[in-house]
Design goal:
With 156 residues, the protein is α+β, with helices and mostly antiparallel strands. It has one domain: 2,3-Dihydroxybiphenyl 1,2-Dioxygenase, domain 1 (Roll). Helices cover 19% and strands 33% of the residues. Strands 2-3-4-1-5-8-7-6 form an eight-stranded mixed sheet, covered by helices on one side. Strand 3 and strand 4 form a beta hairpin.
Length: 156
């Protein structure tokens, strides 16, 4: 696995986007909406010089993650990717993390269509493991309908 990015929870997506893009010079790389399965809105940003990523996450009331915002609790999650891989590899990675002390969340590969899974580390920090579609999966789905190669975001 490789570290993908760190996600920050925000209270107002547009205000935060304005700050991170205009004040800090980050560029929007991808956006997503996972409200249909309990998540929220996410925007992936990239620093054009270092190419490091930061993800902003906003959760509506009623979302699994829509708890009261607490300053200092804004580090939302850490993302890892296993790269281009079949769903079976994601499932094996998820089970290995559970065996090594992680705790399960509601976001299993079966819930996310096989695009990502989430666990809690021993201290309760949210970890997501994503995968990119295989060549066969990309060929089977027109690109405008395929999930982002990065993830089909949950916790985000």
């Amino acid at each position: 696995m490789k570290l993908e990015q760190v996600g920050l929870r925000v209270r107002n997506m547009e205000r935060s986007l304005d700050f991170y893009t205009k004040a800090l010079g980050l560029k929007v790389r991808a956006r997503g909406d996972t409200r249909s399965w309990g998540g929220g809105l996410w925007v992936q940003l990239e620093d054009p010089r270092s190419h490091r990523n930061l993800e902003l996450n906003w959760y509506p009331r009623g979302s699994l993650f829509g708890t009261p915002y607490v300053v200092g609790g804004g580090v939302d999650h850490v993302d890892f990717t296993i790269g281009v891989a079949p769903v079976s590899r994601l499932e094996r990675t998820y089970r290995r993390l559970l065996r090594m002390g992680a705790r399960p969340t509601k976001y299993l590969p079966s819930v996310t269509g096989g695009w990502m899974a989430s666990v809690l580390d021993p201290d309760g920090i949210w970890i997501t493991i994503g995968r990119q579609p295989t060549v066969a999966e990309r060929a089977a789905v027109p690109s405008e309908h395929a999930p982002s190669p990065r993830k089909a975001r949950a916790r985000s």
